[in-house]
Amino acid sequence: MRALQMARPGGAEHTTVQNIAVPEPGPGELTIDVSHAGVNFVDVMARRGDAGYVPAWPYRPGKEVAGTVRALGPGVTGFAIGDRVAAATVDGGFAEVAVASTAATVPVPEGVPSVQAAAVPLGLATALLLLTDAGRFEPGDTVLVHSAGGGIGGALARLVPLLGSGTLIGTVGRPDRVAAAQQAGYPLAFARSTDLAEQIRTATGGRGVDLVLDPLGTRTLDLDLEVTAPGGRVVLFGNADGGPLDALPPVGRLLGGNLTVTGFSHRGLLAAAPARVARAQQRALDLLAEGKLDAPVVELDSLEDVAAAHDLLAAGRGAGKYVVRVTG
Q1: Are 207 and 142 contacting, i.e. CB atoms less than 8 angstroms apart?
Q2: For residues 286 and 36, what is the distance between their CA atoms, to the nearest angstrom?
Q3: How far apart are alpha carbons 70 and 33 in whole angstroms?
Q4: Phi, psi angle pair for 296, to nearest 5°
Q5: d(Cα 51, Cα 60) in Å, to the nearest integer?
Q6: φ/ψ (deg, to 5) at 28
Q7: Sign of the C-alpha dihedral, residues 170, 283, 94, 237?
Q8: Domains and CATH numbers, the chain
Q9: What are the pLDDT digits (tens) for 211-265?
């Protein structure tokens, strides 16, 4: 079968499509004939060699897929060959056949195309978990999202109004990305600059924000705490530039502001509590099936196009959520 492979850390020059053996499912697993696979920034972090993302080289990336069940591992029940499913994969999703744990695999409702379903297991599911589980979102909350023009940022922009409106503010790394954030659904979008805190305070009438969703490591944590209202929450869910992480702020600062700083890792949940990821996947798919949520994607034609999409994400020039057609 055809599969995307990264030979060693670096850039697109080390990413190729290889012919490899078709995998077989083990206990608690199934294999999926992949129709579509989602592209995510975590692929970029793995490609450049960030610590903890690649167990060994060469590495086969790909964290979310949609397709049909090909084979069941020993003792697996609840699925049948030919079922339409979406799954969060540990790796290897950019392939004609992928292995997934049954605990992280859910049925795709009728009416949801595979190209949209493939944007759910990591993308939309992460956005839901950030808001509901980690962020304790409440209707009417003011929400600040960094990297608003990316795939997760776009998913959050569609979910916040659905879950209860509230003011939505996005930030981007450069002024030329403001329009992309606005197009993604952020009525208020600002480039991260020296006067960003003042812009956010003005936008909130001086009150501050209730929830900050931050994939930038600790680089903007001081800003986050400065603009968070009393009782607010800051959720750190990534380290986009791969740099060193600073120490968390003194406890006194958190106590004084009644503030909460929370960490979130989709990968960690998938390993330790896959049922929580599966519930979020199923909820997102059901919302798509009911027409309450949409999942606009940029569809790539083949596995050969994925490395160029990774280049765009690495350069901060991505256009929303990318999904690659594998065999569909």
Answers
A1: yes
A2: 19
A3: 6
A4: -65, 135
A5: 16
A6: 75, 10
A7: positive
A8: 2-119+274-325 (3.90.180.10), 124-264 (3.40.50.720)
A9: 999 999 999 999 999 999 999 999 999 888 788 888 888 898 989 889 999 999 9
Q: How many Å apart are CA 144 and CA 225, to the nearest integer?
A: 12
Sequence-distant (6+) residues with CB within 8 A of 22 are: 1, 31, 96, 97
Region 311-318: what's the mean pLDDT? Answer: 91
- HEC string of the chain equals CEEEEECCCCCHHHEEEEECCCCCCCCCEEEEEEEEEEECHHHHHHHCCCCCCCCCCCECCCCEEEEEEEEECCCCCCCCCCCEEEEECCCCCCECEEEEEHHHEEECCCCCCHHHHCCHHHHHHHHHHHHHHHCCCCCCCCEEEECCCEHHHHHHHHHHHHHHCCCEEEEECCHHHHHHHHHHCCCEEEECCCCHHHHHHHHCCCCCEEEEEECECCCCHHHHHHHEEEEEEEEECCECCCCCCCCCCCHHHHHHHCCEEEECCHHHHHHHCHHHHHHHHHHHHHHHHCCCCCCCCEEECCHHHHHHHHHHHHCCCCCECEEEECCC
How many angstroms separate the Cα of 41 from the Cα of each of 46, 77, 248, 282, 324?
9, 33, 24, 22, 14
What would the pLDDT profile of 153-204 be if each residue is shown by its tens digit? 999 999 999 999 788 999 999 999 999 899 999 999 999 988 999 999 999 9
How far is Cα 316 from Cα 57, in angstroms, rounded to an integer?
A: 25
Residue 133's contacts (CB-CB under 8 Å, 6 or more residues apart) are: 264, 276, 280
Which amino acid is present at 290?
A: E
